[in-house]
Write a structure and sequence with these properties.
299 residues, Rossmann fold, 2 domains, four-stranded parallel β-sheet, 7% strand
Length: 299
Amino acid sequence: AALRAELEREGLPPVVGVAHLAGIARGAMLAGLDVELLREVAEPKVAGAWNLHRVFGDASLFLLVSALPAVFGPVGVGAANYAAANAFLDALAHHRRGLDTDAVALGYGPWNGIGLAVREGGLDQLSRLGVGSMAPAEALDVFGRVLARRPAQVTVARLDWPEVFTAVPSARATGQFAAFLDEFGGTGGSPQLLERCAQAGPQEQREIVGDYLTERLAAVLQTGAGDIDPQVPVVEMGLDSLMALELRVRVKADLGVVVPMVRLLEGPSVEQLTDHVLGLLTEVLAALDGDEEREEITL
């Protein structure tokens, strides 16, 4: 408010355009989010954007730069505070449109070369979820095109949809992705792996699941399967919340079982995780047997 008053005193032209690009990221799962961590990340986006709205509410250009996690849950699961802060920007744009004032919320996916994802070292992990990145020149081209069209809200990101639907099976049930599912969804899952487990005895099942989890964990950690010690807690090997999400959704896609995030972040070893998955798998295999019996009766 003091800035606006000073501009008026100096006889300068009124501010007609505002662009809000401030933000910081501090990773946090929702279960581990405290008030201070929420406030730290929310302040520049929520308080900052709201203050600009109050002081420069009559600007004829009001741009709010949001981010992909606000609308794409799998990216935001390891940064619940950052996702919420950006969702506020999107909501503020719609609020301003409802007041018949200008607003554009531009939600970016990750950039490469510069930006938060680069500084946080998250590009490789995001790519394994099917989330690619864009060069700064591409992002700036998008910037100009969006300003020319002035939508209330738009999200621009490079997504490999077959990879997304494989890595994040829950995306298949999300209405906003229905059109992409029809075009790129495929079938997903791994019935061959389940068949092997169904035909195996208890000890062989344990070996199949243990080998599978070792390979998946190695892929997530970007190391070799031989480097995975089955008795060492996974968090001690470097598994963080985003990696845990990737491991969880892959297990769900391939085996049809849901390992709670809390269980993964407790830091079980591969051996302990194998026991947990085998317990969950018993119900899945029993359901498969029931389906086969019903099919035989029908035939």
